[in-house]
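Workshop exercise sheet. Pairs work together: one partner reads the sequence aloud, the other fills in the structure field after running the prediction. Swap roles for the next sheet.
Pair: D.N. / O.F.
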Amino acid sequence: MDGITGENFEIHDSNDDVVERYQIGEERF
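Structure field:
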């Protein structure tokens, strides 16, 4: 989960948590 920011829309199929954070945006960070 390194380098995942609002501009980086990297969705990893092995990490569903990343997909959720991608939808929420930078609110979680």
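Discussion prompt: DSSP finds one helix and no strands in the chain. What would you look at next?
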